[in-house]
Amino acid sequence: MTATLFGLGVGPGDPELLTLKAVRLIGDCPVIAYPAPDHGDSLARAIAAPHIPEGRQEIVIRTPMIAGQFPANDIYDRYSSEIATHLSAGRDVAVLCEGDPFLYGSFMYVFSRLADTFRVEVVPGVSSVGACAAAAGAPLVSRNQILSLIPATLDEHVLKNRIAGSEAVAVMKIGRHLGKVCRVLSDLKLNDHAVYVEHASMKNQKVSMIDTLGDIVAPYFSMILVRHPEAGVAE
Description:
This protein is an alpha/beta fold. The protein folds into two domains: 4-123, 3-Layer(aba) Sandwich (Cobalt-precorrin-4 Transmethylase, domain 1), CATH 3.40.1010.10; 128-227, Tetrapyrrole methylase, C-terminal domain (Methyltransferase, Cobalt-precorrin-4 Transmethylase, Domain 2, 2-Layer Sandwich), CATH 3.30.950. It is built from seven helices and ten strands. It has helices spanning 20-28, 43-48, 73-88, 107-114, 128-136, 156-164, 178-187, and strands at residues 4-9, 31-37, 57-63, 93-97, 119-123, 147-151, 168-172, 194-198, 206-209, 222-227. The strands form two sheets. A five-stranded parallel beta sheet has the order 3-2-4-1-5, sandwiched between helices. It is elongated, with a radius of gyration of 19 Å. The termini are far apart.
């Protein structure tokens, strides 16, 4: 019996932003796997919770979110082996992933271990980039403009060069790097063109210009959208 591994993007947070296909597969698959922090609940499962039927076997992929220790290869090896056991027994497995599975998605670490052995189908999800732009009411790019996706985890000088050389930027994975990103934007005189968004599409969503943030602790799932003033909105 041949089973399929499904990588399901569950979107940025609002359960209504799951695709119809993702909802159908969550209902069909007997095994549901999802990432979770070392301690605490899984955001991916919380997003998909209204669509998960009772009685499903669940695999909680607990991984440490510690600088220098992610991805935790030994942990992904172990959970991929557990998932492979179900697939080999003919049971389809749906792996939930916040946002989109192939845009900084944790599913790619399972995919890289199992795609050569099992049938895999990836179902794209609404990305955090699109959700943050919608929340901010800020168009990302138009016509021939170029959008750069930049992780805030980069060294400060690299981050500055990347932002300076881009027409429009989505700085992702803000978290503890907020101060560094704000310094870079101030140096580049882009404060008036930078919008901070956290928990896009969720009930606790927050949207602010970076000059009004004050001394806050940014969550990992936050983003800063920047558009150089000369980029404008092409008509």
